[in-house]
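ESCALATION

Customer reports they have been waiting on this structure for their group meeting. Please prioritize. Original submission:
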Amino acid sequence: MTHPFLDLPPLTAGRFAAIEDRVARLLGTRRDVVIAQGEALLPLEGAIRGTAGPDTVALNVITGPYGQTFGDWLRDCGARVHDLAVPFHAAVTAEQVREAFAEHPEIGFVSLVHAEAATGNTNPVAEIGAVVREHGALFYLDAVASVGAEPVLPDTWGVDLCVIGAQKAMGGPAGVSAVSVSERAWARMAANPGAPRRSYLSLLDWKERWIDGGRRALPHAPAQLEMLALEACLERIEADGLAAVTARHAAAAAATRAGVLALGGGAAPYVREARDAAPVATTLRAPAGVDASELVARALERDPALPLAAGGGALAKEMIRVNHYGPHAAPGTVRDCLAALGAVLADKGLPTDPEGAQRAAEDAWRA
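Update from on-call: job pushed to the front of the queue and completed.
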């Protein structure tokens, strides 16, 4: 008995290359694209370890937990790292990056997260990229959460290493990811004696064995299920139109924010300025004296399918995340999340206006 998920023919080199080309079109890039056979942490780490070494002076921007992780990897590579940390309720500015270069003109590498789904903020990459280009530094960007939810344009922004993943706004699985690589980044890796080789972390292996060979022979057997799922994600985005997909995410974020502001009960957007809020997810600050993780648990008791989560680590008691990405970037998801949060806040004896919240969300979505 055959099974559609088990009895799969091997994925050909031609089909693998065609999926890479579709990723390149999604990003509007003419640069090489490498699809990584694993969750986005694989190319995120591989790109840093391939380009950073003891001679690297890096500016590592921290607007959430992933920025902290990138700083750790850079230091592991022997790089001298200057952290630029901003409060998680805000975004970094191009002027702050410019000031960091003025203070440390030797900076040659900049690492940045575009959108932090974990904290709900998004950073102005276009403006920051202009500053990075002025100083000739290599620019590394984590666009895993932002791709599909807002524009991601590595060529236009001067991003040398742009990593994406399928599991958030693209609406796909977590087991496949990709990175676009500039010629400058390839040259940096080739000159780096510490760059991984003959390793699952090695991007150079893919360049030398796959790209330089004309993409005719795959280095190893690809994960068919994840590749087919990535292909399906790309097909769906192409069918809907990327502009429509990003608009839907922006509408979900605006509706969630407006609904929470009208709901009352002491909950409020965690990211203070709407311009700094990521369209992939909206984070909320729980009312004073109320445990966010408890609120989320009670809301999920009402409806386990809601895309709600408490903040991670130290943020678990104060932050609520509404993960309105992928198929959850929809009016019904926003309505259901607001209704559930209103109900659990009311159970706490807090005054809420659930009807007003729904009206505000609907008005924001239409706008």
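Sent to customer with the following note: The chain has a mean pLDDT of 96.
Escalation resolved.
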